[in-house]
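Predict structure. Chain length: 358.
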Amino acid sequence: MKSIIKIFICITLISLCVVSLFVACTHPTEESTTVEIVDMVGDTVVVPKNPKKVACVSRTSYDLLVAFGLTDCIDGAYGKNLTNPWASVLYPASANHYQYEYSPSYELLLSRGVDLVLCPEKSIAEGYREHGITAITICLYGTPNFDSYVTFIADMAMKIWSDETVKQKATEWKTNLLATISEISSQIPENANPEKIFYVRGDKDKGINYTDTRGSFVEYAYRTLGFNCMSANLDYNGANPSAEAICEFNPDIFVLGGVYQNKHVNDLKTTAPYSTLASVANNKIYTIPMGFTQMEQINALTSEFFCDQANKLYPAIFNYDVKTMMKNDIKKYFGTDVTDQQVEDMLAGVSPTGGNLY
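Prediction complete.
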């Protein structure tokens, strides 16, 4: 009897040890205070989790971080994002954010207590890291193309910030965008000889021949929309092809974006040799809406960008209600109710008062 009791006690003690070991091994550990991010130029950067003072110097990062509910974590943004008249209409609280230059000094960033900088170029980010400032690159171009970076900012935000609301908003934006791209792509007829398209970049008044290059979101977008975009043939230093090269390419369609888009439409129609092209004579000229940022750059309304361009470029196939989409998403992401007239002005690339944006 004593032997049986001893055996039972031994078994019980062994069981308790096993359970204790299991509990010890499965007890959750504290969340890491940092996370590794591989940025858009391939640099691996250790970033603090849940940073509280972010400088959105990269022009494509600001409105998305606001859309994901991170406005309280933003110290400032690239000045041109904040001086865009639509910023104060769509998100009045943008007035509370500091206006940064394209490449602010590290002394300024340190004095403002910035704990993460989102930079437009690799060299700028490297310079900050040399001075002990955490910085990653979010640029307008991907290597070798933009295909893998369409949802980069959303994925990055979900890794860096632990807040479930941030993850929910970023996931919703990402899911909706990918579904929109897939839906449009599936309805575009295959064409062995796609139409040629030329994009006129209008954030600066640098002429009709100022464009984007290989690896840009623009090149990705119009390739996805089924076109042969001249940007795909231009290397990073080739953003200003000659008028002769453009005429030789002989685009079937021109698309124009940015604050100078309406000026450039007029220039295109009245300036030789562009005015002699069949696409110009046939008025195959389309503009791109303006919003918090110019919509041909990754932003909170990128789904609307694709739908708007699909409507214009394939009117026999697509008829998206872009106005309603914009009103709903602006309310969802920025908490602002916009009027029909305001949406029409954004679609027309003009200011909130109906005038020029430049």
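Summary: The first helix runs from residue 2 to 26.
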